[in-house]
Design brief:
Length: 466
């Protein structure tokens, strides 16, 4: 017996001791499967062998799948026929090995799955607490909008000390004193004076007031803030770039449109979290970044351009010399500018980062520090890995995606690399995007030969002899 034959015999003997079926049993099962599908066990090709593996490997260990291939090859060899297993079988076995590793390989989050997750992220929970929170936001926005339209001060108790203003106060404005006109405008009759709030000139502000009036049916003084509004409103005003005292006094003369928009937007305490999460997800996906890379991004390194957003990353895991790298986020649709208008696509990363950065600048007055903060508007610590991991897994389940998939923070990195490969990018380009020097490392992130995808493709193909 030759050395290779002796080695094969020893391998088969060792495998038999683990409880796997003997050689004859393996061949018998192979023959039964071929007969069931109208195939000849000695005339099967690699496509048939792959289909056999796909239909059964879920119940096998990776080691036994390799034994099956070895024994089928031996069966053909002994009959003087060519072996069916080839390069595709070898690639498939490698993919199975990765899937059955002690640490499960993270499932890639591809573009279609990420779009569903973003929809789930924007969905508002239908609970009593969520409904109460939406009412609080509507009240604060309605009061601020009415203060801007009339130039009246907000509640006196918001000041550190009680202060009398020489203007009417929203605190005493009654519901019956606000009349909605046919054209959508509002008329305010207060202490012998009449004020007209023209909807054509102030459409957005009037809409906020009307929305709150519709929600506050039954309240005699709808523009009287509650004690529970003290903390959130003070927090919003103190973190913005606006003059705190002037705004409380109803002096909005020096407040620009952009500042006012972001002030009204930041009243929603969940808005900042939402903008951050969307920007994080799309940045990590389209740039195929590690979570560690996103922690190194800073506000001062973000530059918004007409064609997209450029982000300077000062260091990374593979950048030992600290040279840094400039990353570019383009628009999804290159023929449309979506910074000032509507987003060109729900997954446009340039628009997401643009909105989040402007929120930080105008609503928080923040121009430096980590790009993605751990606590909205507080401290200077970058968002943690555990926090984003919990977010990914929560959104994955909420989007109705397979719950048996193993989701990790590198799922976005793997999804971005796979999306680039499917779009036709070369391996060298993907290596540069991921920051790799060796193609073997890059191919781990490109799920071109993912076993589940191979299985679905093979099972969907018509069977021979059918």
């Amino acid at each position: 017996m030759s050395a290779p034959q002796a080695g094969l015999a020893d391998e088969i003997a060792a495998l038999a001791s683990t409880g796997w079926p003997q050689y004859a049993d393996t061949i018998r099962r192979w023959e039964e499967w071929c007969a069931k599908h109208g195939l000849s066990p000695l005339e099967a090709d690699e496509q048939d062998l792959l289909r056999y593996l796909c239909m059964n490997y879920g119940d096998w260990s990776h080691g036994y799948a390799r034994v099956v291939v070895s024994r089928v090859n031996r069966h053909h060899r002994e009959a003087g026929l060519p072996q069916p297993a080839g390069l595709r079988t070898k690639q498939f076995l490698k993919a199975i090995a990765r899937n059955n590793a002690p640490m499960p390989k993270v499932a890639p989050i591809l573009d279609d799955a990420l779009e569903k997750m973003l929809v789930a992220l924007g969905a508002e929970p239908d609970t009593t607490e969520a409904e109460r929170g939406r009412a609080d936001v509507a009240r604060l926005r309605g009061v601020l909008a009415m203060s801007v339209l009339l130039g009246w001060p907000i509640n006196e108790w918001l000041e550190a000390h009680t202060k009398r203003y020489d203007k009417p106060s929203l605190r005493w404005l009654r519901r019956e004193q606000v009349t909605r006109l046919k054209d959508g405008s509002l008329r305010v009759d207060y202490e012998g004076h009449r004020y007209l709030l023209d909807v054509e000139r102030n459409d957005a502000l009037v809409s906020l007031v009307v929305a709150w009036l519709d929600l506050s049916i039954g309240e005699t003084h709808p523009f009287r803030l509650r004690e529970s509004d003290r903390a959130p409103l003070k927090s919003v005003l103190s973190k913005s770039t606006l003059d705190y005292a002037r705004v409380l006094g109803g002096d909005w003369a020096g407040v620009g449109r952009v500042d006012l928009e972001w002030l009204l937007g930041s009243v929603d305490r969940d808005l900042e979290t939402y903008l951050r999460n969307v920007a994080y997800l799309l940045t990590a996906f389209w740039l195929a970044r590690r979570h560690q890379d996103t922690m190194e991004m800073h506000l001062e390194g973000v530059r918004i351009c007409s064609d997209g957003v450029r982000i300077q990353q000062p260091r990374s895991k593979t950048d030992r010399n600290g040279k840094g790298v400039t990353l570019f986020l383009a628009h999804i649709s290159p023929d449309r500018e979506c910074i000032t208008g509507a987003p060109c696509h729900p997954m446009c990363p340039a628009r997401a980062v643009h909105d989040y950065v402007l929120f930080q600048q105008y609503a928080r007055g923040r121009t430096a520090g980590p790009l993605f903060l751990s606590r909205e508007g507080k401290g200077s610590k970058a968002v943690g890995r555990g926090q984003m991991l919990n977010l990914l897994r929560k959104l994955w389940v909420a989007a109705g995606l397979p719950q048996d998939a193993f989701i990790g923070t590198r799922s976005l990195r793997a999804g971005g690399a796979t999306a680039a490969d499917r779009a036709g990018a070369s391996l060298l380009d993907i290596m540069r995007m991921l920051g790799h020097k060796h193609p073997q490392v890059t191919t781990v992130y490109i799920r071109r030969h993912d076993p589940w995808q191979v299985r679905l493709a093979l099972l969907a193909s018509p069977e021979r002899g059918a």
